[in-house]
């Protein structure tokens, strides 16, 4: 990819893998990192999303402004190019959370950025414990999504991820430091970070 393309980050992983905490750690490392607040049509959690309607999403899709959309937990989530443009134009680095390989493909082919793709992973029992600790109202549904993410990951093509980080073995700050070093350093001089998956 061209070095003149803006930087952007994808954090891919199952529920409770640490996408929010690693994003918070990234913003502490460098204020240019900003969580990409996806569009959301539906109910439930509102923090970290821009709420909209299914009709408005359809209109954006018709105008070719939706880079990727998916349905989960009875809601529709979407990544729109105007918001990506807004973040990048402000000199910031969008950090996009995903749980689908198709989303990574859509971003790489549908939005001109230098995408650093990071797999954040933790074992299923760790996910269960984390869901319990944070008082999740639908832990079984989240664990079902963990299973779906594992199956989705099995179909990933070689080279899908720039980095693979186990969040049960690294602190959020350590993971953020590695991501930042990889994004801002010379990739040819940095050894690839590939934690072993369970």
From TrEMBL:
Protein name (record): Guanylate kinase
Keywords associated with the record: Kinase, Transferase
Biological source species: Protofrankia coriariae
InterPro entries noted in UniProt: P-loop_NTPase
GO MF annotations in UniProt: kinase activity
């Amino acid at each position: 990819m061209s070095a003149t393309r803006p930087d952007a980050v994808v954090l891919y992983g199952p529920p409770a893998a640490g996408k929010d905490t690693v994003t918070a750690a990234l913003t502490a490392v460098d204020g240019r990192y900003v969580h990409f607040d996806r569009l959301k049509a539906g109910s439930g959690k509102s923090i970290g999303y821009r709420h909209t309607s299914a009709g408005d999403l359809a209109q954006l899709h018709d105008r070719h402004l939706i880079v990727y959309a998916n349905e989960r937990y009875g809601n529709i989530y979407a990544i729109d190019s105007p918001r990506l443009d807004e973040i990048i134009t402000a000199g910031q680095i969008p950090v996009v959370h995903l749980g689908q390989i198709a989303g990574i493909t859509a971003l790489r082919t549908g939005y001109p950025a230098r995408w650093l793709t990071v797999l954040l992973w933790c074992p299923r029992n760790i996910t269960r414990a984390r869901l319990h600790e944070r008082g999740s109202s639908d832990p079984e549904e989240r664990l079902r999504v963990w299973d779906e993410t594992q199956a989705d990951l099995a179909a990933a093509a070689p080279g899908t991820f720039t980095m693979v980080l186990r969040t049960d073995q690294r602190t959020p700050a350590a993971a953020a430091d590695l991501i930042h070093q990889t994004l801002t350093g010379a990739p040819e001089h940095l050894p690839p970070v590939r934690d072993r998956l369970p």
